[in-house]
């Protein structure tokens, strides 16, 4: 059976061209729909209005418009802003993009003077400005979300400094570690993410408005004034680059991808730890779902979704790189493809940060006893036996080989190192004394690792204090916290 496909009328109604009288014929309606971006760039409406308000204020200040004209346009733009905030702004059906929608409504409100708003600018520098304003706001929101997630990790770490669990390499039990140390590893990743986004913000916070289509304008505009009014740190210095630059969007996608890498790694561990094989955490009802078939199931949907959503963000990065790689200067319509991926990355990243914060706060419960039991049933203290021998003056490689033999014997007998008697220890090497039992106790194994950055409890306490010091509340305006 064929799908229900709507076949376009063979004699479509022509679509008027919103921007130019250069053409005699009308645009084919299918091409008009293909060409339009209003369906997604309407999200930029608040930023388009902010840019237009700053632009008209500059035009009035520079005498390019009379103060009366500038004030009429300002009032019209403010009315559109009020309509947008009230949810009553309705773009013209023929609007190609958000910029035309605003201008069309402005002319309807204030008359012919509204057509003077576009003096001294182009859609090319206008969309670049809108995009930068939007991304700057989103970066601030995302950094705040990262700050909140870091706070949750720090709180959990403070509760579990002396909780021990197996540390893994190659997903094989390696050495016991402090759970706080493990959690602080993710806080370190998010700290780098937070800093990295601050650096991206610096690249975003540059004003291209006034660059025109590609070559600037002969009108005596004041680009520095416009940039100041919009809160930009500086202006772009090359008009060709200004209208075609999307490096800052690529950098944001890359930073977002790294954040999702870190969230995905944490998610993977939560999925593993919640399994019956690990049982290091249990899922609460707040963040778990059941099976449609198996009544006993409690599924870790939140970390699985975060892990899955990372891929779509990686895809948006790759898509934009491919879009940009062959573009000649200056603006090309290909750049319209920068927005949908960006909007989706922002939405995906923000939702993942929120979900992971809730998961760690309300969705899991750590099981310290199970973690400790796991440490006691393996050979993750074998390295400490070798270190014990090293302290007796035995070369590490010799000690390493000897401990390998001891582990092999224990495996053959179905026992672990703590089950060996002192007599048997001495059979392996006379250097072993009664203190070997304290040396291989899991708590002591962890506590003894006092090298800088290690998992020793005293070192972890210091690391936690340092992380808490740098975790200052984000400021309410401009940059969020220290960069």
Write up this protein.
The chain is mainly alpha-helical. The protein has 19 helices and 6 strands. It has helices at residues 29-35, 38-41, 45-61, 67-86, 98-110, 123-159, 179-204, 223-229, 239-244, 247-273, 301-324, 338-363, 368-376, 382-391, 396-413, 422-428, 436-439, 442-447, 457-470, and strands at 164-169, 172-178, 206-207, 234-235, 281-283, 364-366. Strands 1-2 form a two-stranded antiparallel ribbon. It has a two-stranded parallel sheet with strand order 3-4. The chain is elongated and about 100 Å long.
User: What is the overall pLDDT average?
Assistant: 92
Going across the major beta sheet, what is the strand order? 1-2
Q: How far is the N terminus from the C terminus?
A: 59 Å
Proportion in helices: 55-70%
* Shape label: elongated
Classify the secondary structure makeup into a structural class.
mainly alpha
Element pattern in H and E: HHHHHHEEHEHEHHEHHEHHHHHHH
Q: Count every beta strand, where a strand is a DSSP E run of 2 or more residues.
A: 6
The number of helical runs is 19
Q: Report the C-alpha radius of gyration, rounded.
A: 31 Å
Poorly predicted tracts of residues: 1-14, 476-483
Strand content: under 5%
Please summarize the sheet with the most strands: 2 strands, antiparallel
């Amino acid at each position: 059976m064929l799908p229900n496909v709507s076949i376009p009328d063979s004699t479509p109604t022509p679509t008027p061209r919103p921007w130019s009288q250069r053409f005699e014929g009308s645009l084919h309606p299918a091409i008009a729909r293909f060409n339009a971006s209003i369906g997604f760039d309407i999200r930029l409406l608040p930023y388009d209005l902010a840019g237009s308000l700053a632009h008209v204020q500059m035009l009035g200040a520079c005498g390019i418009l009379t103060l009366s004209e500038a004030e009429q346009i300002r009032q019209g733009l403010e009315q559109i802003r009020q309509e947008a905030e009230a949810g009553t702004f309705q773009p013209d059906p023929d609007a190609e993009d958000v910029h035309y929608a605003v201008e069309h409504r402005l002319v309807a409100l204030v008359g012919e003077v509204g057509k003077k708003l576009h003096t001294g600018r182009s859609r090319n520098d206008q969309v670049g400005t809108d995009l930068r304003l939007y991304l700057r706001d989103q970066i601030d929101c995302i950094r705040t979300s990262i700050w909140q997630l870091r706070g949750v990790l720090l709180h959990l770490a403070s509760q579990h400094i002396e909780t021990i669990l197996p540390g893994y390499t190659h997903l094989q039990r390696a050495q016991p570690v402090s759970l706080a140390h493990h959690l602080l590893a993710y806080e370190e990743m998010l700290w780098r993410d937070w800093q990295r986004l601050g650096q991206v913000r610096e690249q975003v916070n540059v004003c291209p408005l006034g660059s025109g289509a590609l070559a600037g304008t002969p009108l005596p505009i004041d680009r520095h004034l416009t940039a100041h009014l919009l809160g930009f740190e500086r202006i772009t210095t090359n008009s060709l680059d200004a209208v075609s630059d999307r490096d800052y969007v690529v950098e944001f996608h890359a930073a977002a991808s790294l954040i999702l890498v870190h969230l995905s790694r944490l998610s993977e561990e939560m999925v593993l730890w919640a399994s019956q094989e690990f049982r290091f955490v249990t899922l609460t009802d707040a963040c778990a779902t059941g099976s449609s078939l198996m009544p006993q199931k409690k599924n870790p949907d939140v970390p699985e979704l975060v892990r899955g959503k990372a891929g779509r963000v990686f895809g948006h990065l790759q898509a934009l790189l491919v879009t940009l790689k062959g573009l000649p200067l200056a603006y090309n319509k290909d750049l319209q493809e920068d927005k949908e991926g960006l909007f989706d990355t922002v939405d995906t990243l923000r939702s993942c940060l929120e979900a992971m914060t809730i998961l760690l706060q309300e969705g899991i419960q750590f099981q310290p006893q199970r973690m400790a039991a796991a440490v006691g049933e393996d050979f993750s203290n074998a390295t400490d036996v070798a270190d014990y021998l090293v302290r007796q003056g035995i070369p590490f490689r010799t000690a390493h080989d000897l401990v390998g033999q001891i582990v092999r014997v224990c495996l053959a007998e179905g026992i672990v190192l703590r089950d060996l008697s002192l007599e048997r220890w001495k059979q392996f090497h006379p250097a072993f004394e009664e203190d070997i039992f304290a040396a291989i106790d899991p708590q002591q194994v962890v506590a003894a690792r006092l090298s800088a950055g290690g998992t020793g409890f005293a070192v972890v306490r210091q690391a936690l204090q340092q992380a808490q010091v740098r975790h200052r509340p984000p400021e309410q305006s401009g940059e969020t916290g220290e960069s």
